[in-house]
Automatic annotation (TrEMBL):
<keyword id="KW-0547">Nucleotide-binding</keyword>
<dbReference type="InterPro" id="IPR044492">
    <property type="entry name" value="P_typ_ATPase_HD_dom"/>
</dbReference>
<feature type="domain" description="Cation-transporting P-type ATPase N-terminal">
    <location>
        <begin position="35"/>
        <end position="109"/>
    </location>
</feature>
<keyword id="KW-1278">Translocase</keyword>
<dbReference type="InterPro" id="IPR006408">
    <property type="entry name" value="P-type_ATPase_IIB"/>
</dbReference>
<dbReference type="Pfam" id="PF00122">
    <property type="entry name" value="E1-E2_ATPase"/>
</dbReference>
<dbReference type="InterPro" id="IPR023214">
    <property type="entry name" value="HAD_sf"/>
</dbReference>
<feature type="transmembrane region" description="Helical">
    <location>
        <begin position="1028"/>
        <end position="1049"/>
    </location>
</feature>
<keyword id="KW-0112">Calmodulin-binding</keyword>
<feature type="transmembrane region" description="Helical">
    <location>
        <begin position="84"/>
        <end position="107"/>
    </location>
</feature>
<comment type="function">
    <text>Catalyzes the hydrolysis of ATP coupled with the transport of calcium.</text>
</comment>
<keyword id="KW-0479">Metal-binding</keyword>
<dbReference type="InterPro" id="IPR001757">
    <property type="entry name" value="P_typ_ATPase"/>
</dbReference>
<feature type="region of interest" description="Disordered">
    <location>
        <begin position="1129"/>
        <end position="1214"/>
    </location>
</feature>
<keyword id="KW-1133">Transmembrane helix</keyword>
<dbReference type="Pfam" id="PF12424">
    <property type="entry name" value="ATP_Ca_trans_C"/>
</dbReference>
<dbReference type="GO" id="GO:0016887">
    <property type="term" value="F:ATP hydrolysis activity"/>
</dbReference>
Length: 1214
């Protein structure tokens, strides 16, 4: 018989049997496990030991992977470069240009007979060059766009794999607990599971304490499910442990786990659907040809190939599968998540882009109309000619000029600048310990006005040590000697700490003897275990005597109990209960205490008051967290005064009676020192206009002490430091409802909220965000690490989760993960965020100047000279400089500390401030003056022949070349001016810190010289003399001097109306759906021509918005296909892919546009012909919410409701 690693190669149970086993729940599950002989027997069949785990040898692990699969789900292959090129080609304006260029090419080769007599052959022979040049420049634009998308996607996959690599899990191998990467888990592994974990695989419980799991990501049921070996032993991948702890045997991984099965179906469904959509499109084309006159809308085909919404697909899965998969199909269609998707900046940009699109389109249409009318009047009326075939090429040429104006008018570099800037920042922020999960979070962070921070681990080091103890009426400020403690008390303390701390918490010897011991697991428990080691005893020997399997009952820590209790069998029969927790909570339940020399005394009210005043408050005022350890005994025989006599086993469910009348053993003060860099970071935040608030579960005195050390509260300032109870009393009305106007009285002064529950944290965050007290509306960032911080992290504008101490649930709800758990990294995030915002503003300032000038020149030129002074190819080159290259150059500026010296912008500040508008208009005036001077008198000034009124087929003139060259020079020098947006004088400051900027700038200059000297017909240029070059340079340098003049004009004098992109984002996110829903090329009610035109302009924008979409889609797709262990995303899967119709929903890659109407139910399938959009109904399932969804929060307020709340867990972590 074949053997592997000394055991038979054939397992006692097959993959199929294991898969079937995991289909069962509850009692069925228990019976099914019993059929196989119980969990112990299944362990034997898988050759693993419940206490020692696998041997961990490579051969064994490989064999298991081959037999049962590995713990990962293969991701969807990324789009190829050619696919991206094809997508970039879908852009409407580019298509118009391509068609026009091809027509112009065709016309240039077409020669009617009589024409040869009129024209000299030489002149027309170059007619084809312009058409070709336009085609080439279109290709360049397409390649640049595709390349950008491609690099984005690659970068993102890198980031994703890094996030995945960070997810590790506790597994027992060779009888030791090891942290292994989730993808290394195999069937037969024994995993330790604890509160806050995201389960990486399916398994059967071997042992559990008080375990509750949130299975909403699989079932849509929001209630936490109790799990236990005897009534429901099946735990599933992708679910969250909300309470308790335990050990499980892994039975299914990767594509065989429950979540994996769903993903596989999802993937197959998507492929099926894509095939289906192609078929639908073909049919739709046929439909269109024979479209009836009944006014049926063929909603399936929109005007732009990448705007297609998929059509419904008949359900191919059989019924039983469908029933099982129902939980994915019935995802909540949450309005809230959409609000968050659209960041402040994106909302402002969308509005701006639409305004510019309108203006540009209007001018483009006017230009074409004027050119054509002038041509017709001149040719047919004045000269009285009749139509000739070569006139067609004139008309095409006019159209090309018009389209080019549109191309220049629409700032499609904008989204590119945003994405580049964000991508660059995200990459750099990784180095600053910020792992950004949602791109727009980094820009939102720049606008943050308030930070609600945790205390433990964020402001403090989260390296806890016991520094004071109170045992038998002795208060020790240093480590007591074990010999000084009465033996019976000492042993009880040792046992109480060793047994009643989770066995996942351990203190390990350091690798380097000079360093401190390593703390693994819960840091408060580690401090207590460290106290045992400090007494010179070993906690492990006690743990070996009481393995977890022997525990009678465990009441695990949660934020309602604020304590943890463990019941173990007593050597002489009966039970012993140990409790530890927040001292004021435990002392309330104590009836006895060990006094002097270990005498047992009654613990009276009086003594309790004294103990609080003399021991606990002074400890708390030193910033210590106080923990009390107590015990109680249940004995069968004669009971002592502090014991309880029992006949049979107590009712362990009756927790209030069990954990009561305790005997206090000791009180310890645990120090968690403030991180040395925090006070400075908080000072920076306050200078930058950001209010830092501390929200903690610790008691008031500890919190106040730490807040003072950090500088959150300063002596003799007017501020509030209150407890959760008091906070709730102030903000709720008589019926217990939270009232915004009451909250508005509290939050502006609130600095510290102590003894708070996660619900309080959520209420506070929501209250600040919704508040309209301040002029600019607050933007709130929140830090959190506990499972129950989920709602607050989701609700906040930016949620920070702790990378080290954070639970998986918190990380899932967050936008940015702090890989070093350090508050000062948040300050770095603020700096980068502001930098993103500023980079985009710089780019806008530069871009709009060029836009205004190019459009005005083309328009007035067309009216005055019957020809645009800037030719189509030249404008495309300018467009390339100012869009793609400038966005690269300006979006990659490094942040400086000056960014932290100004106040945050807030939500409603206009995107283009008055200073920027002053610069834009000022520079535009200068450039237009120069260009028109050159156009009308330049020929006389420079003594060259005039290019005005030249014949259509005449070659390029030096006159128009000088105009083009001066324009580009002015643009290039204006790029320096654009580097400063707050009216600083020195525009060259820090120029050498940005190599990208100067490389691009020099590169562009060189290219311009080549174009002018050797561009000839292709670029419609003629080489210039040195003197003419110097003139062009002179005009270019003039922009720098003029810029200094413009800066001198006081901004205050400029009317406010000139700031653009103002207004509250929410007001216009709803109004922007025109590109999708309200406009349908094939509908019978044709939109107005103007609408079509600006939509065309907008699609140009959308092409590049796809860059941002590429980011979002790669993020979301990857998050969804993330290897099983990252089934975090089932949540996001359910909320973002909310879908109400037949399974499967739309393809996962088609992510929404930036300017899409968040309220429209875009994700549901298209309605049938006779059904209008607005009659879509939600299926009843749609309203199932995942538990820690912010939408639940409104159920929270009334205390009565508290039991259903996700149990808060945020505080004295014991």
């Amino acid at each position: 018989m074949a053997t592997i690693d000394g055991r038979p190669a054939q397992y006692g149970i097959t993959l199929k049997q294991l898969r079937d086993l995991m289909e069962h729940r509850g009692r069925e599950g228990v019976n099914k496990v019993t059929e196989y002989g119980g969990v112990q027997e299944i362990c034997k069949k898988l050759y693993t030991s419940p206490s020692e785990g696998l041997s961990g040898s490579q051969v064994d692990l490989e064999h298991r992977r081959e037999t049962f699969g590995s713990n990962s789900i293969p991701p969807k292959p990324p789009k190829t470069f050619l696919q991206l090129v094809w997508e970039a080609l879908q852009d409407i304006t580019l298509i118009i240009l391509e068609v026009a260029a091809i027509v112009s090419l065709a016309l240039s080769f077409y020669r009617p007979q009589q024409e040869e007599l009129v024209f000299d052959d030489d002149e027309t022979s170059h007619g084809w060059i312009e058409g070709l040049a336009i085609l080439i420049s279109v290709i360049v634009v397409v390649l640049v766009t595709a390349f950008n998308d491609y690099t984005k996607e690659r970068q993102f996959r890198g980031l994703q794999s890094r996030i995945e690599g960070e997810h590790r899990f506790a597994v027992i191998r060779q009888a030791e607990v090891k942290q292994v990467s989730v993808s290394d888990i195999v069937v037969g592994d024994i995993c330790q599971i604890k509160y806050g974990d995201l389960l990486p695989a399916d398994g059967i419980l071997i042992q559990s304490n008080d375990l509750k799991v949130d299975e909403s990501s699989l079932t849509g049921e929001s209630d936490h499910v109790k799990k236990g070996e005897h009534f429901d032993p099946m735990v599933l991948s992708g679910t969250h442990v909300m309470e308790g702890s335990g050990k499980m045997l892994v039975t299914a991984v990767g594509v065989n786990s429950q979540a994996g099965i769903i993903f596989t179906l999802l993937g197959a469904a998507v492929d099926e659907q894509e095939a289906e959509i192609k078929k639908m499109k073909k049919e739709a084309k046929k439909q269109r040809k024979k479209k009836s006159l009944t006014g049926a809308d063929d909603d399936n085909v929109t005007g732009n190939s990448h705007m297609n919404s998929p059509a419904p697909v008949p359900n191919k899965l059989n019924e039983s599968q469908d029933a099982k998969e129902n939980h994915v199909a019935s995802a909540p269609s949450s309005g809230d998540s959409h609000k968050k998707e659209k960041s402040v900046l994106q909302a402002k940009l969308t509005k701006l882009a639409i305004q510019i699109g309108y203006a540009g389109s209007t001018i483009a249409v006017l230009t074409v109309v004027i050119l054509i009318i002038q041509f017709c009047v001149k040719t047919y009326v004045v000269e009285g000619k009749s139509w000739e075939k070569n006139h067609a090429s004139h008309l095409v040429r006019h159209l090309i000029i018009g389209v080019t104006v549109l191309v220049v008018a629409v700032p499609e570099g904008l989204p590119l600048a945003v994405t580049l800037s964000l991508a660059y920042s995200v990459k750099k922020m990784m180095k600053d310990n910020n792992l950004v999960r949602h791109l727009d979070a980094c820009e939102t962070m720049g606008n943050a006005t308030a930070i609600c921070s945790d205390k433990t681990g964020t402001l403090t080091t989260n390296r806890m040590t016991v520094v004071q103890s109170y045992i038998c009426e002795q208060l020790c400020k240093s480590m007591p000697k074990f010999s000084d403690i009465p033996a019976h008390v000492g042993n009880a303390i040792l046992q109480g700490i060793a047994v009643n701390c989770a066995y996942t918490s351990r203190v390990m010897p350091p690798e380097d003897p000079t360093e401190l011991p390593k703390q693994v697991g819960n840091k408060t428990e580690c401090a207590l275990l460290g106290f045992v080691l400090g007494l010179g005893k070993n906690y492990q020997t006690i743990r070996d005597d009481y393995p977890e399997e022997s525990f009678t009952r465990v009441y695990t820590f949660n934020s309602v109990r604020k304590s943890m209790s463990t019941v173990i069998p007593r050597p002489g029969g009966g039970y012993r209960l140990f409790t530890k927790g927040a001292s004021e909570m435990i002392l309330n339940k104590c009836a006895f205490i060990y006094g002097h020399d270990g005498r047992l005394e009654k613990f009276t009210r009086d003594m309790q008051e004294r103990l609080l005043k003399q021991v606990i408050e002074p400890m708390a005022c030193d910033g210590l967290r106080t923990i009390c350890i107590a015990f109680r005994e249940f004995v069968p025989g004669k009971a002592e005064i502090n014991q309880v006599h029992i006949e049979n086993e107590p009712n362990w469910e009756d927790e209030d009676n069990i954990v009561n009348n305790l005997t206090c053993l000791c009180v310890v003060g645990i120090e968690d020192p403030v991180r040395p860099e925090v006070p400075d970071a908080i000072r920076k935040c306050q200078k930058a206009g950001i209010t830092v608030r501390m929200v903690t579960g610790d008691n008031l005195n500890t919190a106040r002490s730490i807040a003072t050390k950090c500088g959150i509260v300063k002596p003799n300032e007017d501020f509030l430091v209150i407890e959760g109870k008091e906070f709730n009393r102030r903000i709720r009305d008589s019926t217990g409802e939270v009232q915004q106007h009451l909250l508005d009285k509290v939050w502006p002064k609130l600095r510290v909220l102590a003894r708070s529950s996660p619900t309080d944290k959520y209420t506070l965050v929501k209250g600040i965000i919704d508040s309209k007290v301040t002029e600019n509306r607050e933007v709130v960032a929140v830090t959190g690490d506990g499972t129950n911080d989920g709602p607050a992290l989701k609700k906040a504008d930016v949620g920070f989760a702790m990378g080290i101490a954070g639970t998986d649930v918190a990380k899932e709800a967050s936008d940015i993960i702090l890989t070093d758990d350090n508050f000062s990294s948040i300050v770095k995030a603020v700096m980068w965020g502001r930098n993103v915002y500023d980079s985009i503003a710089k780019f806008l300032q530069f871009q709009l100047t060029v836009n205004v000038v190019a459009v005005v020149v083309a328009f007035i030129g067309a009216c005055a000279v019957q020809d645009s002074p800037l030719k189509a190819v030249q404008m495309l080159w300018v467009n390339l400089i100012m869009d793609t290259l400038a966005s690269l150059a300006l979006a990659t500026e490094l942040p400086t500390n000056d960014l932290l010296l100004r106040k945050p912008y807030g939500r409603t500040k206009p995107l283009i401030s008055r200073t920027m508008m002053k610069n834009i208009l000022g520079q535009a005036v200068y450039q237009l003056t120069v260009i028109f001077a050159l156009l009308f008198v330049g020929d006389k000034m420079l003594d060259i022949e005039s290019g005005r009124g030249a014949d259509l087929n005449a070659g390029p003139t030096q006159h128009f070349t000088v105009i083009f060259n001066s324009f580009v020079m002015m643009t290039l020098f204006n790029e320096f001016n654009a580097r400063k947006i707050h009216g600083q004088r020195n525009v060259f400051e820090g120029i050498f810190t940005n190599p990208i900027f100067y490389t691009i700038w020099i590169g562009t200059c060189v290219a311009q010289i080549v174009i002018i000297q050797y561009g000839k017909m292709a670029f419609s240029t003629r080489s210039l003399t040195l003197e003419q070059w110097l003139w062009c340079l002179f005009f270019g340098l003039g922009t720098l001097l003029w810029g200094q003049l413009v800066t001198t004009v006081p901004t205050r004098k400029i009317p406010k109306i000139l700031s653009w992109g103002r207004g509250h984002p929410e007001e216009y996110t709803e109004a922007i759906a025109i590109g999708e829903e309200k406009f349908d090329v094939d509908s019978d009610k044709k939109p107005r021509a103007g609408q079509i035109l600006w939509i065309r302009g907008l699609t140009r924008l959308q092409t590049q918005l796809r860059v941002i979409r590429a980011f979002k889609s790669t993020l979301e797709d990857l998050e969804e296909r993330r290897s099983v262990h990252s089934l975090h995303s089932l949540h996001s899967l359910r909320s973002s892919r909310s879908h109400t119709g037949p399974w499967p929903p739309r393809p996962l890659s088609d992510i929404t546009y930036i300017d899409e109407d968040p309220t429209a139910n875009k994700l549901s399938p298209q309605p049938s012909k006779n059904e209008r959009d607005d009659h879509r109904l939600l299926s009843p399932n749609t309203l199932r919410l995942p538990t820690h969804n912010p939408q639940y929060a409104h159920l929270a307020p009334s205390p009565a409701n508290n039991s259903e709340l996700p149990k808060p867990v945020h505080e004295t972590r014991i």
